[in-house]
Amino acid sequence: xxxxxxxxxxxxxxxxxxxxxxxxxxxxxxxxxxxxxxxxxxxxxxxxxxxxxxxxxxxxxxxxxxxxxxxxxxxxxxxxxxxxxxxxxxxxxxxxxxxxxxxxxxxxxxxxxxxxxxxxxxxxxxxxxxxxxxxxxxxxxxxxxxxxxxxxxxxxxxxxxxxxxxxxxxxxxxxxxxxxxxxxxxxxxxxxxxxxxxxxxxxxxxxxxxxxxxxxxxxxxxxxxxxxxxxxxxxxxxxxxxxxxxxxxxxxxxxxxxxxxxx
Length: 263
Ligand code: PEP
Ligand code: MN
What we know:
This is 3-deoxy-7-phosphoheptulonate synthase. It comes from Thermus brockianus. Residues 18-257 form the DAHP synthetase I/KDSA domain. This protein is of the alpha/beta class. The protein has a single domain (13-262), classed as TIM Barrel (Alpha-Beta Barrel), CATH 3.20.20. 36% of the residues lie in helices and 15% in strands. The protein contains nine helices and ten strands. Helix 1 (37-49) packs parallel to helix 2 (74-87), helix 4 packs across helix 5 (144-155) and helix 8 (210-219) runs parallel beside helix 9. 51% of the residues are buried. The mean pLDDT is 98. Bound molecules: phosphoenolpyruvate and manganese (II) ion. The site of phosphoenolpyruvate has 10 residues, from loops.
């Protein structure tokens, strides 16, 4: 169902703030995790002011260590809903299990499926039953064929609103957190009509590399970005090293506008 042979024109998804797919580029931005009302509202206000079309923020965090910050849960969802109400930005947040789908759908405009859950087939089927867009992250050890098969689990349940997100894969390179597979963008776009986005934050692992990776993704043809930014990144409870300061996010958005206009 994802194939360009089945649908020979790009899928364009429409949000209240803009579109993604075809020639349309949308940027989702916000903190890695929802940590407090103040932190999330501050981030929501400035990402909107600098031109983001969507707010991201994890209420449920899939942490590698069970002892690390796990997110605020339902309280986090309520904070995201408040941020949407104030800014008008649609909200995307991660859903970790099939049982959570209904709850997250009450608060969010789009589901995020994390890299660690990219082959959690019951979860993919559960969001396939929902009628909201899904940002599906590529698993860190997934081939592109496997990635598309995960998308098929969602599409085959009737939810055609799937965005594929390249977020870096495991390679032998240790300088970056993951290796952003820029090739995934043109390859996926030659196979599928679905929008393809890039997450430059998790592969970079370090904020100074986020802007170049984001621009590389867009130059390769990505239809959107999902970027982490935090009002006080040094104090972030997760992914502190890679979250952009506000001024860096503003710089990114200015460059994104220039690049997109030139493409
Ligand atoms: C995130 O977006 O904060 C996240 C956990 O991403 P990923 O699933 O790509 O690691
Ligand atoms: Mn993160």
